[in-house]
Design brief:
This protein is mainly alpha-helical. It has five helices and two strands. The protein is elongated and about 50 Å long.
């Protein structure tokens, strides 16, 4: 029988365990950490079609450092796809 009642705090905790943060080592050894698409906020989902906005929102003040090291929004999306199995524009309920 399917479960019909969920405790939100438990669901959020389980999602964090099942889909841990993605980490990218930046030049100089600093690490940028951000959630995979399965845990994105509604604000991120709303701009998912704009790779540059997504990258800026995920990396925040570390985005310039990421770009200075040769990174780009498209490279970040490749990292996200490899780490999570989700491409921009796709959603996953697993």
């Amino acid at each position: 029988m399917s479960k019909t009642r969920f405790v939100l705090a438990d669901v959020v905790s389980e999602a964090a365990e099942k889909h841990p943060d993605i980490e990218v080592e930046l030049p100089g050894g600093e690490v940028a950490s951000f959630p995979p698409p399965q845990r994105w906020s509604d604000d991120l989902v709303a701009v998912a079609g704009d790779a540059v906005k997504v990258a800026g929102m995920l990396l925040g003040d570390k985005y310039e450092q990421f770009k200075a090291g040769g990174g780009s929004a498209m490279i970040l999306l490749d990292i996200i796809k490899e780490a999570s199995g989700v491409s921009l524009g796709e959603s996953s309920t697993s």
